[in-house]
Amino acid sequence: MASASGSQPPALFSAARITTLFGSVLVALSSGTNYIYSAYAPQLGARLHVSHTQLNVIGLAGNVGVYSSGPVWGRIVDAKGPRIPLIGAFICLLLGYFGIRRIFDNGADPTISFVSLAVLIICSFMTGLGGNAGLAAAVNTTAKSFPDTARATTTGLVLSGFGLSAFYFSAIAHTAFPGDTSAFLLVLSLGTAIPMLVGLLIVRPVPMPSKQSIDGMEGGYSNAGYSHVPDAPHSNVFLGENGSHTALLGHGPALHEQESSVATTYHVPQASNAVEMSPSRDSLDRRHSHSSAPRRSFSRAGRLLDGSPNIYGKRLWLTPDFYVIFAIMALLSGTGIMYINNVGSISQALYAKGNPSYDELEASRWQATQVSILSVGNCAGRILIGIISDFARVRLHLPRAYCLCIVSTLFIISQIAAINVYDVAYLWRASGLLGVAYGSLFGICPTIIIEWFGLAHLSENWGYASLSPLVGGNLFSLMFGRNLDAHAPSDDTHSLLQARELPSTHQCFDGRECYVTSLNITIAACTFALALSAYAGWRDQQKGREALTAAVKNRTNEVVWEEEDEE
Fold it and tell me: What single-letter DSSP state applies at residue 10?
């Protein structure tokens, strides 16, 4: 496919394509700073005299900015490209973190005013809004700039950068400005905004290489290995010939051996959506030449001509499978968000419990350690779940939805590990497990969204599915904050806190007793998510078998036109 100017598009490993990839990784690396909130939240609470519940509301505002803006940014980047989201990301990240820093520097005495608290919430919301805008632009542009054969690797690289964002900024700030929260916020303000301007110059879709453009773009959105058939009314649709498989967001669907045995060779012209109902003699010749290959037609609404699903909009909200994945994500991501937003307070509580003389600088180092471990685990989880899901799909012939059982189990183990930590020196185990589980969740779910509902409206569908963390995140985080506030020191212990030079009377420093009740509740929630995950895998497998049976039956009942032998 030639470009608009008539010249051939750049090669796969051309400078233009590599530059776009580099810019996308840089933008993604600057977009995931929402996970770093717990690295400065306790210091924010101590200086501004806000409670744990208020701190969780501030942190949740950032998550609301991320997840509520998904459908909006998705539509914009699908229709207009990356420029508008990148401009929005620059403005939101710069103003958001700069506003938080300004309020932190001004301080509060004796308590924070309602206006200042409201501004903090708005600024936190803007950081989430900007981060999601940058990620949407980076992933979408990368997916459109690389053919099917390289799309999984390149988009996975971009998402890995997003997962490492918290580690990257935490390492910079605590190496260059240890214990200086104001400088940390300044690094976040400038370090997240400036890369968006760089991305504005170099992140742009690059046309596909000519051969891959035809194979990957015009026919690459099918899913020949797709085994899930949503319930829908019938309408006649022919399956088209397609040998390519889209692998967006890190995982490409693989052919099931039995499914591939009934693959069609019926040809649908790429230049038109019309289906040839009265075949010409040339068409008969082509069919006759491929008579050894099986053929089928398939009748389902909500599917494209090539047989891949195409469910979106109102139909998405009427599909039971959407609510299954929505509930699983709400329970698991809510657990993850609760831990990520409060791991700083957890580490402070454990450190204070085991140290009679409280060193605030040392406590901040433990906070930074947990944030870094979470970030690395997040990145590793996104990579590992792709390898595991590919193995389950290709080697074991199991639906990828079964991988949600692995993810749910990791969440349960992480919460059990956190309950059994009595010393901050061992908190890294729970943080690492939680990071891997959280990254795995957001690594596998986009792939399941593609398999269940199709690629054509991925950004929109994923945006709606991404509303689920708002439910779980708000519920569990507010519960955690109220639990911490309930264990905050009373007035009778105020003098003891001052003697130990603890940073704030609003914080709980009684170790695991500050939060163990909340973790017991999240274990129950993740166990329920595990049951839903098992159901989702079983349901997907049953529908795959039904689709295979229907395809075989349809093939045996199909009328094959053959040219009579001429003598």
Answer: P
Domains of the chain with bracketed CATH: 10-217 (1.20.1250.20), 218-310+544-557 (no CATH)
pLDDT (average), residues 231-240: 37
Specify the amino acid at residue 99: G
CB 515, CB 420: distance < 8 Å: no
- pTM exceeds 0.85: no
Task: Match 């911490």 to its residue by tokens.
Answer: 484
Q: Model confidence over 156-214: pLDDT tens digits?
A: 788 888 888 888 888 887 788 887 889 999 999 999 999 999 999 999 888 876 654 43
Q: Phi/psi class of residue 181: alpha, beta or left (left: φ > 0; alpha: ψ in -120 to 50)?
A: alpha
Q: Which two tokens mark 242?
A: 């397609």
- b (16+ CB within 10 A) / e for 246-277: bbbbbbbbbbbeebeebbbbbebeeeeeeeee
DSSP string covering 251-286, please?
------HHHHTT-------TT-----SS--HHHHHH
DSSP-derived letter for residue 237 is: E
H/E run at residue 298: strand 298-299
Q: What would the pLDDT profile of 39-96 be if each residue is shown by its tens digit?
A: 888 888 888 888 888 888 998 899 889 888 878 887 888 788 899 999 999 999 999 9
Which residues make beta-bridge pairs with 309? 303
| Cβ-proximal residues to 236 (8 Å cutoff; 6+ apart), any chain | 297, 299
* All residues at 6 or more sequence positions from 176 whose CB lies less than 8 Å from its CB, including other chains: 183, 187
